[in-house]
Write a structure and sequence with these properties.
Length: 74
Amino acid sequence: MQTSRLSSKGQVTLPREVRKALGAEPGDTIGYEVEHDVVTLKKLEPFDAAFHEALSNTLDEWATESDEEAFRDR
C-alpha cells in the first residue's frame, strides 16, 4: 500500500507509483469518488474535467444547508 501525509492545507502528494498507475502528469485533473470510507482516484480527460466543472457550477444552487439536510432525511 502506498502512503502519503496530509499537509496543514489539506494537500497530499500522490506517490510516484500512484501517478504512474493513473498516467498522471503535472497539470492533470484528478477526480475523487467517495463511497463510505473508500476513495477512488481517476485521471480525468480534459473533456471530463470541463464537464465536471460545468456540472458542479450548475448544481451549486442546490448545495445549501437546507438541501443537504433534506437529502439526509430521505
